[in-house]
Amino acid sequence: MANPNFRVVIPKKPEQLIDLAGNINKKHQDDKELSPLRAMRVHKWEDNGPKIATCLEHHKKAEELKRQMEEEYRNRDLLLIDLVNSVKASRDILLGVCRDNPKIMGEWGFLVDDTPRNPKKVVQ
Fold this sequence. Notes:
- It is built from 3 helices and no strands.
- It is mostly helical and 124 residues long.
- The protein is elongated.
- The mean pLDDT is 93.
């Protein structure tokens, strides 16, 4: 006897959902007039089936752009290491030079915050 407690899973990942839509549409097309999905009055496969290929193209393009984006971030981060070191070294030198008036460091683009820090709360 079949298990009466079952679920029909609809994928959440776009590529898997597109694949499933393609399979459903293909079966619907193969069955022609005998397809039970012909009874659908809204969201008909005759309307949405042609959108599958375009959706897949957009998905593949998005995945390629995502890969390129991640590569660009990696390249940026490699260069940022040297920039961070130069900024910190510049700050340290200017702190010595501008010790009497650190606000002058604003001329170099630094944000000089002279507001008092909030005291740390002691956890009891």
